[in-house]
Each structure stands twice: as C-alpha cells, then as structure tokens.
Amino acid sequence: MRLLYNIGIYLYGLLVYLTFPFNRKAHLFVRGRKNWKKNLTQKIISGSKYIWFHCASLGEFEQGRPLIEKVKESYPDYKILLTFFSPSGFEIRKNYDGADIISYLPIDTPRNVKSFFDIVKPEKIFFVKYEYWYNYISEAKHRKIPLYVVSAIFRPGQLFFKSNLIGNWYRKTLQSIEHFFVQNEESDKLLSKIGLKNVTISGDTRFDRVASIASSAKTISFIERFKDAKPLVVIGSSWAPDEELLIRFINQSEGVKFVIAPHEVLDSNVARIKNSLKKQVEQYSKIQKLDPKIYDVVIIDSIGMLSSIYQYGEIAYIGGGFGVGIHNILEAATFGLPIIFGPNYRKFKEANDLVELKGAFPVLNYEELEQILSNLLANSEKLRRLSDVTKNYVDQNQGATQIIINKVFIF
C-alpha cells in the first residue's frame, strides 16, 4: 500500500504540473512550491527551535489561529512555521504576522519529506483538523517528533473505519500520531473502536477564534450609514445556487437592507450578481464615495471584511450548503445572528447543534427560504430570542485552546 500511495502522490503532482498553465489554482500551487528547499533553508534561523503548524486551507487556519497565537504568546522561545496545502489559504494569509515562516507544504513524497524535516527540525507538530499525509506522519514518528491533530472530527464513513485493505492501512497511519484533540464524543468513540486511546475531547478551537473576532471587531461606519436603522440580512460566502434563491427574495422585499459577500470576488462574478438585482445596488469599492442610505444592497468585492460586518446584521445566510458544504457559521453566531443555510450541513457539528437548538435553519428551496426569512423579519421578539441562542452557544463552547496547551506544554 505504501508503494501505491507514493505512486498516487507522484501522479497527483504530475497532473497539477500539467494543468498549471490553464488553471489559476494549479499555477499558484506549482509556482508556490518552486525552489522550496532553497527558500525554506534561507528562512530558517540556525539554532532556533521551531513548532510546525499545518493547515489545509483558510478555514483550517482560522481554526488553528488561536492555538498559534497562544503558543507564540506563552512560549516565545519557539519560532512558528506555518504551512498550507491550498493556494486559497496561503495566498490570503502569506503575510500573517503570527508566524515566523509561512510556506506551502511540499508534496508528500518520501524525498520531499526527508528534506523538509532535515531543514526545519521541528520540535512539535500540529496538524489542524485533518490532512493525514502518510509520509509526513511516518517521518515524524521515525524521528520521535510528537505530532498532534487538533480540532479533529471523525465520521463513520471515513476510510479509517472501513474494513478493507485501504482502511486497514489508513488506520495504521493514525497509530503514528502522538495525540488527538477531537471536537466531540462521537470522534472519541470512533477512535476508541479502532484501538486509539490517546484522545482528548477538547472541542473546537474556532469558538476561541470567533470570540476573539467579536471582542476586537472593527467599526465600519459605512455599513452603519448604509443600514440606516433598517433590518439587515448579511449573506456570507455565497455561491451561485445560494444567490439564485436569495436574489429572488431580495427583489421582492421591502424595507430590508442586504449585504452580499460572495465567496468569489472576481469582477465577472460580482457583475453577474449585480446585474440580476432589481434593487438599488452597488459594490463596496464604488459606493463609499456615494450616499449609502439610498441603496438596498451592497456587494462586498474585497476580502477580510465579512467577520466584522456580521455585528450589524439581524440575520445571516451562509453559503455553500447547495454545494460541497457550508462555510463558517460561527463568525455570525458569535454576534448573535440566527443563521440560514442550504441542505449540505451535516458534516459540521456546530450547524447540527444550532439546528437542534433552533438557532439555525436549513432550507431546501426558495419556498422554505422565503418562509423563514419573512417570519424572522416580521417578528422582532423571536429575533431577540434566537440571537441569545446563537450567542450563548458560542460562549458556552470556548476553551479548547487552553485544554490543548495544558496537555501539550504543561506537564
């Protein structure tokens, strides 16, 4: 199986290389890893002690960020290396000042992995949530470097729990991990069934992150003027299937303001949304010099504002639920917004929890969306009650970062 895995990794790297002239993400993937040994060697300070954090993409970074910053604050003798697999994580956070070095993760070939460890010589390793790269995990075990998985969540359908050749091999990979910090009891039970007892139910570090966001949210005076004391629906990380339903509702609404922050902020995508709206609409980059009060809809065509915009909303719609899965709902929940999303949310514990608590509402079609939005917008008392539900949920689930710190660093 190891041979087949390595052949698969080499073929994956070849495929990305062949497609990079035609695909933007593949281009960034290849360009970012060019001369990685030389670049990483130049950044490493000889004699320094490094802790290595790996995040698949931007979402996992936000999950790992509270831990990175707590380690940097509490243990300044260590330097922080942060790696990303995906361009969507690296390109947005490549200037993050909480890490000493930020790099793409070299592809998981045996040669790359040995070179990477020879250059960095990490003393501790944290993989955030998932990405179980066989060669990296095996090499850490071989070199007796503890590797921790934090904010992990497991489901019965994953390969680790399959009774076949591939499942058996993947289970052996998990045996090389020093400790699992999991989000829930189900994950603990699943790992226990395959003989893994080195598990702590710590919860999700994202609760610590969003609480920090709420306490340091930036004032956006432009949004205050735009809202003009009217109810505001904030649409975060939306995709076309989400927008198809929402635009229909917006075009029929009266007395409500909307902020749309699409997942893709390309000019062509922003223009598509803008042209489909029958209301007074403008994009953020152009509206600031105008009188925002006269507009019904603002399209956010820049990155990094959404988490602070939620503080002005009454209701949030989070995109992705008509695709591979919903985006981060906790940034809205920490400000006490009831949340609406599409049907693909089952993989996310916080979404399931809030649906059960009646603070979040999945929708299958326009009729359900229209019913829920209209009901909430017409009932201020219900809005206040649901606001308490979502905010209290975030408040009650903080503390995962300190649990991990206590286990890993305090003996």
Report on this model:
The structure is a single chain. The protein is α/β, with parallel strands linked by helices and 411 residues long. The chain folds into 2 domains: 2-212 and 399-408, 3-Deoxy-D-manno-octulosonic-acid transferase, N-terminal domain (Rossmann fold, 3-Layer(aba) Sandwich); 219-393, 3-Layer(aba) Sandwich (Rossmann fold), CATH 3.40.50.2000. It is built from 20 helices and 14 strands. It has helices spanning 2-19, 24-33, 36-43, 58-74, 87-93, 110-120, 134-142, 165-174, 185-193, 206-215, 221-227, 240-252, 267-276, 284-287, 306-309, 330-333, 349-356, 366-377, 380-396, 400-408; strands spanning 49-55, 78-84, 101-104, 124-128, 147-152, 179-182, 199-201, 232-238, 257-262, 281-283, 297-299, 315-318, 339-341, 360-362. The strands form 2 sheets. The protein has a 7-stranded parallel sheet with strand order 3-2-1-4-5-6-7, sandwiched between helices. A 7-stranded parallel sheet has the order 10-11-9-8-12-13-14. β1, α4 (58-74) and β2 (78-84) form a beta-alpha-beta unit. α4 crosses α20. The radius of gyration is 23 Å and the shape is globular. The mean pLDDT is 94.
In short:
By secondary structure, the protein is of the alpha/beta class.
Give the name of the CATH architecture of the largest domain: 3-Layer(aba) Sandwich
Q: Uncertain regions: pLDDT < 50 for 5+ in a row?
A: none
Q: Please identify which CATH superfamily of the largest domain we are dealing with.
A: 3-Deoxy-D-manno-octulosonic-acid transferase, N-terminal domain
- Number-wise, the strands total 14
The tally of domains stands at 2
Largest sheet: 7 strands, parallel
- CATH fold annotation of the largest domain: Rossmann fold
Q: What order do the strands of the largest sheet run in, or round the barrel if closed?
A: 3-2-1-4-5-6-7
Mean pLDDT: 94
At the first level of CATH, what is the class of the largest domain?
Alpha Beta
Q: What is the end-to-end distance?
A: 38 Å
Number of helices: 20
| Fraction in beta strands | 15-25%
